Amino acid sequence: MINAGDIPSIQAGTLSKRPVNPECGSLFLDTRNRVFYRFNGIRWELLITTVNLGTYGYSAPPIPLQTSNLLFFTYSDGVRSVYTNKDGLVEYGITDIMSPNEVSYINLFINGVLQPTVNYKVEKGKLTLLTEDIPMKGVVIILQFISIYQL
């Protein structure tokens, strides 16, 4: 049998529930006797015996993961390589630099460009730029804190 997505599917149930007018090549799984049948165009023929059906019963789908995405914004002053919570711009995001232990991922963007992790160090309340050059005055610095969790 071909389902609506044009994908072959297998019907299942007790032997008495086999399709009445199957197409040639249709498959049916007898769930009581654990046997596969194939319709050859004339009759149902035994195809595979002793099918392992696994555990019976309904298993609820997993609970979807939740995420949060918090952003810390500041501007470079053109001099410092260390920024703290007091440098955060409350009108654009959070003003706390979170600990790496509190979140799943941290990304740093300087002037909109994602920085490799070797270029910076994040501690609770503190961002340290590890590069020799300092961003020019007025350049936007964004720390992104991503948390992935299950309720």
Automatic annotation (TrEMBL):
Q: Name one Pfam family in it.
A: DUF4183
Which residues are in the DUF4183 domain?
A: 75-145
> What is the protein's name according to its record?
DUF4183 domain-containing protein
